[in-house]
User: What shape does this take?
Amino acid sequence: MVNYKLLGAFITALCLLLLSLAPRLNAAVANRLLLRPHTLTYDSTELNGLADHCRSEQLTFHNQCGQPLNAWFFQPPVRPDETGTVIFYLMGRDADIASRAKVLAQIAKSGSSAFIFEYSGFGLSAGRASLTQMFSDSQCALEFLNHRLGVALDRTIFFGESLGCAIAVTLAQSYRPAGIILKSGFSELSRVMREHQPLLKIVPASLLSSKQLCVRENLRNLQLPVLIAHGLNDRIISCHHALDLYRTAKGNTSGIADLLLLAESRHAYMSDHDSTVFTLKLGSFARKAMLVRQLENANLHYAAAEELNVPTDVLAALQGSVVALTCELNKARDLPT
Assistant: This one.
């Protein structure tokens, strides 16, 4: 005979246990599951090698608690086709700056500068690692880049990697960059967790991750150029997430949504061939993103001039600028990448 009272007590206890362990409700569980901060001094040989070929500066800024965070600013040699863009690099859950040397080299070769920093509790940065702190640190880093280093948002492209994709898209809700690059990203964190742990399917998605970690939903509201890059051999986050993000990004009004699937690459590893393809794509995307922003500004200036009844020759010059930028952007869209 079934003891329904005992069974009910067991089900209640199980539900309470699941609730207590749900990442959305238990920050300590979320931090332990998702973050792998490195707090020891690391080998910076590759980073120093990169610094030898770029104008570079190691910097320190502070988080909201006043603790020092480690950062680097890399600027490639000036080239005739330099876009003037700065990549604001948001790393994932277990990376330090030295481990991203190869990606930083790709950014430099593409013609863009790069600003990269370590979250609290990661690498050489002080403080304690947590998801909440990562979002807060990213805002402090962006304000440091804008206000202290004088890099305008019109020249800034957010580069999110893995978990950093969620931070990039969330930041873009409040700060409007020239564009966003999402590399090895996920559509929803709850989906990734369920793919790795099927038992989590019984837990509501709302208890597994917060709204900030629903990249696809947050991306839907952005009207910005977007580049989505993903390795086809990624075993941590399936490339199906990239396809979902791409379908969402195609709906934005900027007209720029690019998808780059890297045939020989995994979550973090990238083959030499894919590295070359990725570098070329970074350069072409940065140029298109800058043209989109320049065209937006030109249209605004033209509209303002019409309202002010400026002289006809000035209005014609502004209209000519709009036409020229439109033609240049259409040409850039057709370039092979």
User: Anything to note?
Assistant: The first strand starts at residue 55 and ends at 62. The radius of gyration is 22 Å. The chain has a mean pLDDT of 82.
